Amino acid sequence: MKSLNLLIAHLLVLFNFSYAAADTELPVVAVSEFIATIDKDKRYFEKTSKAENFAAMVETQLVKIGRFTLLERNQLDKILTEQGIQQSITNGAALRVDGADYLVYGAITEYSEEARAINTGNFQSTKLITTFGIDVKIADAHTGEIRRAEAVKISHESGSAINTGRFKQADISSNGLVSAQRKAAKQVGALLVESIFPISVVDTFDGDIYLNYGNSILSIGDTLKISRQGRRLVDPQSGKVLGSTQKEVAKIRVKETENDFSIAELIEGEMPSAGDLAKVESSQESKYQTERPRFGKKI
């Protein structure tokens, strides 16, 4: 009975956290087009990277996260037209967009499908790998400052085949690009989260560690580094708050995901506390390479 009461109490904590998050004013995010210069010289029968589909997937992912208000694409296009800055997205100029707090945009830099074969005597194994890469930028729509600039690269196994001479078997997916794009969209959502509302520990109970994001950001098997904030760092000349000292205290692994929260287990270090920050160290779905790592802050 005591364990049941404790479990109910912790569920109430999670419910109150979700309710409080939903009740606050959320930042407005606009997703612009992703430029696909790699498709420019392709002929009509060649596969393209489907940039318009990827932008829609990013929008869907941000809605699933539930921490942002999404500015409709047609409304964004209207604002850009009225401000006369439609071309700024492609030429790299600083962007200031009325009606939004953050702007997500970028370029598709890589798309390929490659068959990788291994031959050993009469045995042949082949894998079809779909690779999808993007450069994504997250800008402060009020100032035009770029908060994050990242290169995201996804390698997705979209098919396999085995040939032993007498026996042949093939399993090929027709939507390898779609799967790779969805994984990339999930990573873009994670980057925006880290810049505004970092992943953090909500509570701990009976060895379980509860995190404030669910399956829209995290996947089972993901490992995260836990850090604890210390003293604030203030520039003595300008008075500007530069950030805070951070101490790495643990490493955890996600073992269960729900819509709004995840449960992890401790694999190294001390048990985290509520409020500790978490950063994905390795993902089961993909990896992204950091160009300019930083934690942003809410406007």
TrEMBL record:
InterPro entries: Curli_assmbl/transp-comp_CsgG. It holds the Pfam family CsgG. The keyword Signal applies. Keywords: Cell membrane, Lipoprotein, Membrane, Palmitate, Signal. One of its GO terms (cellular component) is outer membrane-bounded periplasmic space. Residues 278-299 are annotated as: Disordered. The keyword Transferase does not apply. This is Flagellar assembly protein T C-terminal domain-containing protein. It comes from marine metagenome.
